[in-house]
């Protein structure tokens, strides 16, 4: 591991100033970064520990939104009554990820900014356009079973590994950032970017930007929402495919109708994937399995699977249908 | 807690700090790259916590940090200078084993024993989490105020961060369930 200087700033402004050092990185829970440093994938010269300055409170704002401090630990997010009551899919997403120990350590901002678990990215003996731009992508012709089917590029087929971020993308959570140019806000899923020709850039953050908080919007239908995750073992595994869904259904004489919905997919793209085409297809239509399958098809028409991960497309379709159908059953 | 480059030839950066481990204050001088697991084992002679994978996947290194279970292979020691650290060596009280340790023995909850210190610390952290009503992937999270009943499915899910290559899970589930009741 490359030697590094450790800095513990007193507040966010000090943190941003410290991060101006060359090769500086922010340290949250360390559950991903420390491992990447050990693997030689991340080589910061300065670590700026922001676990005590980035905010560790969850509070309701005057407008009814819920503000989650960037340094809130994942376990505290999932266990908080406001999150469990108003945004159950977010609490479910968090407890569906990692292990008890990791959730006690990992922060909300660190979860959003964790790197892909693509095996080539994590192996410094292999080419990888994300780790070493221009070196190539062996995943396309190699081991890509777990990688992207939507929005990937010739340069990169990596997936974003987070569960939490999928639920936040469905909710349209707003990420607050402090930077050298002052504060700004990025609504999810607009924090992350598709790989294009620059897979080394996971997000739209600029060097030195510090996430300070995430605001969850007022969204009554999220009180009945669901996160479902398909993984290779029963616990402590990344998503093969996951779905975060909220559904508002009118039960009229002509059968149930979708008044509004939110849908996002995990394990399928370089970003948490907000399924806007499916949402558009669903709104105002019948709340039936046939309609859900058509909406899923509308979203997945854009899928370009590779030979080893083509199974993800029907898996995502079935998961969308089952999750939405479950929400209808629970609504009558 | 800032650090200085006092060994520019080697490039190492070190920090002097005091760790509170098992109710004792211990001064150490560590390389910033050092993990809490390595500090405990190599500098403080506390070899209970084990290095299994060194990647946060096996749980053999689990200790309690301010009462919460963490993987010490992913904690940089410089970040832990004012935290309360409890290792498996700190569980016994008044010369006797902790009730959870007794239950592990009574239920044959180990074979080779390598993962056991991590399992014990993890289980203690888990019992405290359950007592606070924290949700898991096998309980409905939207209840919000429900009491957690630690049945077999709950214990297995909540302990999934600790692997046992001997497969002594059955005894561990029994032992943890016994202490939970």
Automatic annotation (TrEMBL), chain A:
Q: Where is the FAD-binding PCMH-type domain?
A: 1-221
Q: Which molecular-function annotations from GO does this UniProt entry contain?
A: FAD binding; oxidoreductase activity
| Pfam families reported in the protein's UniProt record | CO_deh_flav_C, FAD_binding_5
Q: Which SMART domains match?
A: CO_deh_flav_C
Listed A to Z, the keywords are: Oxidoreductase
| Entries under PROSITE patterns matching the protein | FAD_PCMH (PS51387)
Q: Does the keyword Oxidoreductase apply?
A: yes
Presence of keyword Chaperone: no
Give the protein name, as stated in the record: FAD-binding molybdopterin dehydrogenase
Automatic annotation (TrEMBL), chain B:
Keyword Iron found: yes
Q: Which domain of life is it from?
A: Bacteria
Q: Which CDD domains match?
A: fer2
Query: In its keyword annotation, does this UniProt entry include Oxidoreductase?
Result: yes
What pathway is this protein said to act in by its record? Alkaloid degradation; nicotine degradation
The entry's protein name is Oxidoreductase
The GO terms this record gives for MF are: 2 iron, 2 sulfur cluster binding; metal ion binding; oxidoreductase activity, acting on the aldehyde or oxo group of donors
Concerning InterPro entries, the annotation shows: 2Fe-2S-bd, 2Fe-2S-bd_dom_sf, 2Fe-2S_ferredoxin-like_sf, 2Fe-2S_ferredoxin-type, 2Fe2S_fd_BS, Aldehyde_Oxdr_Iron-Sulfur, Beta-grasp_dom_sf
**2Fe-2S ferredoxin-type domain sequence ranges:** 15-91
Q: Which lineage ranks, top first, belong to the organism behind this chain? A: Bacteria, Bacillati, Actinomycetota, Actinomycetes, Streptosporangiales
What keywords appear on the UniProt entry?
A: 2Fe-2S, Iron, Iron-sulfur, Metal-binding, Oxidoreductase
What is the organism field in this record?
Sphaerisporangium rufum
